[in-house]
Specification:
globular
Length: 380
């Protein structure tokens, strides 16, 4: 079997209303999908996290190297691309582009052998995954103290046993929102917070101490990803577990992050940190360091499916016991017209639980009519 063609699909959809996290407003959602064809008729799909036009440029530049290659040699292909771009792209959009290619190759590999990717990654430890609801962003011209608690309570009513609140809007405001959301969801639903690295260590520690009484599951990206010393300072000052890593790349980047003891919870994005090939290696390394692994997921149904294939094989956070603590799926609940539309069968939750797709490869089928509706760029 040989690779015959690589295509990139840049998709975009306007939102009904803008929303914000700590550092920017969104009025649209984009996606960059990778399609790889083979001479046997099998097609694989992947997704790149990051700026869509830039990751598409990476994939299109790499594509000529892949034509004629055996798509089953996922490690060899990964190492070849990485080695040829090592001088220029050990992190960032190059690795994001490589991630989408790698995921598409795993989709092909699973389809070739007629099994889900998780079976080839080592076999499923679980067939379903508890999800947490990511939402609670800011909207324009509305008091967040009025809508955020209601939104959080709605997620709890849907069956989610954990929700994540966006912070980074000022210490006093963040503390007030955290308190209000905790009161709205009660004590039985886990609450995490995510600053999207909007604070320095001094501010993050101050906020953390104010919200510690609200039983926070983790404090995500309290400081910028480059500030590893800041991560260590926040981690040592608070009892709240510290999470991060969506802006880190490959096992080499995570090796240094883990060795610095800066994190309690690692959050590589499968569509950014190196794809399934690399993220399985990162997960194995996180277990060796005693660091929990909950992947960052912010994309379409392809990103969700790839993350579920990985989550299926991850070990429990805790050592073997009768009450293991299992890894969680990040389940984005914000408006995203593209997310489920591109799948012939959407990936949904039932009472906060998502089943791992059991079909070959990623276990999904792509709706090409939806691709055409959202397309703003297609390369051949």
């Amino acid at each position: 079997m040989k690779i015959t063609k690589i295509r990139t699909h840049i998709l975009e959809a306007k939102l009904s209303q803008p929303f914000a996290y700590s550092r920017a407003w969104y009025d649209s959602r984009t996606a960059m999908l990778v399609e790889i064809e083979t001479d046997t008729g099998l097609t694989g799909w992947g997704e790149c996290y990051g700026p869509a036009r830039m990751t598409a440029a990476v994939v299109n530049s790499v594509a000529p190297w892949l034509v004629g290659e055996d798509p089953l040699r996922t490690d060899v292909v990964w190492q070849t691309i990485y080695a040829r771009l090592r001088d220029h792209g050990q992190k960032g959009v190059v690795i994001q582009g490589l991630s989408g290619i790698d995921i598409a190759l795993w989709d092909i590999k699973g389809k070739h052998f007629g099994v889900p990717a998780h079976q080839l990654l080592g076999g499923a430890a679980r067939k379903e995954v508890q999800a947490y609801a990511t939402g609670l962003y800011r909207r324009r011209s509305v008091d967040p103290l009025k809508y955020l608690p209601d939104e959080a309570a709605g997620y709890a009513a849907e069956g989610f046993r954990a929700v994540k609140l966006k912070v980074g809007f000022g210490i006093a405001e963040d503390a007030a929102m955290t308190r209000a959301v905790r009161e709205a969801i009660g004590d039985d639903v886990a609450l995490m917070v995510d600053a999207n690295h909007a604070y320095d260590a001094v501010a993050a520690i101050r906020l953390g101490r104010l919200i510690e009484p609200h039983d926070i599951g983790w404090f995500e990206e309290p400081v910028p990803p480059e500030d590893v010393a800041g991560y260590r300072a926040v981690k040592s000052a608070l009892t709240i577990p510290i999470a991060g890593g969506e802006c880190e790349f490959t096992r080499f980047g995570f090796r240094d992050l883990f060795a610095s003891h800066a994190l309690d919870i690692a959050q590589p994005d499968t569509c950014a940190a190196g794809g399934l090939t690399e993220c399985k290696k990162i997960a194995d390394m996180s277990e060796a360091f005693g660091i929990r692994y909950n992947p960052h997921v912010w994309g379409t149904g392809i990103a969700i499916a790839a993350s579920l294939q990985l989550l299926a094989v991850l070990p429990s956070h805790t050592p073997t016991s009768l009450a293991p603590l299992e890894p969680l799926l990040e389940f984005d609940r914000t408006e995203h017209p593209i997310r489920q539309a591109i799948l012939k069968e959407p990936i949904e939750h039932a009472n906060g639980v998502v089943r791992v797709p059991e079909g070959p490869g990623l276990g999904i089928e792509i709706d090409r009519e939806a691709l055409a509706r959202f397309a703003i760029g297609l390369s051949n």
